[in-house]
Amino acid sequence: MKLTEELDEKAVDATLFKQIIRSLRYLCNNRSDISYGVGLISRFMNDPRVSHMAATKHILRYLKGTIDFGLFFPRETNQVERKNTFGYLFKYMNAPIS
After folding, report:
1. How distant is the alpha carbon of residue 47 from its chain centre?
2. What is the pLDDT of residues 61-75, one digit of tens each?
3. Please, which of 38, 48, 87, 93 could form a disulfide with 52 given CB 3.0 to 4.6 Å?
4. Residue 18 forms part of a structural domain
């Protein structure tokens, strides 16, 4: 599905759309696999249409089907210096993306 600003489509509730997008953006911290899609639908927050909400619902259905997926950030118990350092690397097809 190619998302565009289609002005001839019916508008949807912008408040609900923004709430869903906010929740999905928060979820991107542990589910980097949805980052691209969430970034794409976030472009239409100012005037969401039916096709934009359909794409959002598609992401929600994907999340429901992959509820056991995610990133695990283990806590290290042997901290000698008591300085927390945190880093991550996400790869897609052997190319770093974040």
Report:
1. 19
2. 999 999 888 777 677
3. 48
4. yes
**Residues 82, 11: Cα–Cα separation, whole Å:** 52
Supply the range of the domain harboring residue 37. Answer: 13-69
Q: Can you give 37-95 as a three-state secondary structure string?
A: HHHHHHCCCCCCEHHHHHHHHHHHHHHHHCCCCCCCCCCCCCCCCCCCCCCCCCEECCE
- Taking the CB of residue 55, how many other CB atoms lie within 10 A of it? 19
Q: How many domains does the chain have?
A: 1
Mean pLDDT over residues 24-47, rounded? Answer: 91
* Residue the block writes with tokens 């945190």: 86
Separation between Cα atoms, residue 46 and residue 43, nearest integer Å: 8
In a domain, residue 75? The reply is no
Contact criterion met (CB below 8 Å) for 41 and 52: yes
